[in-house]
Specification:
By secondary structure, this protein is α/β, with parallel strands linked by helices. The chain has one domain (6-189, 223-251, 286-302): NAD(P)-binding Rossmann-like Domain (Rossmann fold), CATH 3.40.50. The protein is built from ten helices and 13 strands. The strands form four sheets. Strands 3-2-1-4-5-6-11 form a seven-stranded parallel β-sheet, sandwiched between helices.
Length: 328
Amino acid sequence: MITESKILITGAAGFIGSHLTEVLLKNDNYLILVDNFNEYYKGKEETLRGIIKNYKSKENYNLIKGDLLDTSIYKQIDKDIDYIFHLAAQAGVRYSINNPIEVIKNNVISTTKIYEFSLQTEKLKKLIYASSSSVYGNPSYTPCDEEHQKNPISPYALSKLTGEIYADYYYREYGIPITSLRFYTVYGPRGRPDMAIYTFYNLMLQNKEIGIYGNGEQLRDFTYISDIIDGLILAGEKDESKGEVFNLGYSNPISVNQLVDKMYKITNKTKKIKYLQKQKGDVNITHSDINKAKRILNFRPKIDIDEGLALQYHWQLAFFKGSKKYIL
């Protein structure tokens, strides 16, 4: 576990960023939290403030509201930091198809600015870049190891791959200790409202019909949020991860139809499903080979899909009933 360190987290108010913030604050770290609190989905600022309310500003954290595209923001960030977790990005495969320029700016240009900022740091131990399994596109074989060919089929996937290529460049040419992590379909409490599991539960709780794109037989490697947080921290801790790329998944994909069956069983609701036209940018299967992460990072995902779905449901049910806001 990383402790007693000064850490920059970009995208600190997002789904993954808020969970990472919560864990690292509990372990006596000083955090520099950066987020622009954009309107892609609501509740992010309330979530983050709910997490940091029991800690002291300037003593335990420094919250900076701003855009990574704005050069002036970097003047507010201490240069004597130990770790950078670069999680900020414009998410959403489907969103990216309609907004490619926005995705390029927020995912490629801002990432390069973070890499440039890292050149000014004095004692940086590790820079962790959050990438995505979407860089593989429709795979030619599964499970996908890190050497699988890259065939992104959306601007979002292309932007994430570009960030990896720049990461490799800054590692080779400048020696910046960068590690790239390819996340596989992360879910859990505080998940983005546009993600499938959140959307499905929300509709089920309202006894509404859910829509499944395609025939529902597409396979997804669902990975619970706490396992992703473990992987992030392990990548930060391990010196051997410098210059490397790792898959972080559960490595046991199920079909969307199977997922929905499990969710209806948990909710004990009457099944109401309609099938919709397959969306552009959707891949047929994601399936992670995590042997490299196991070997080098000692990454061991713990939460299987049944436990993870139950945990998210109980959080979302409380949220739906109004007994909780946006935080755990």
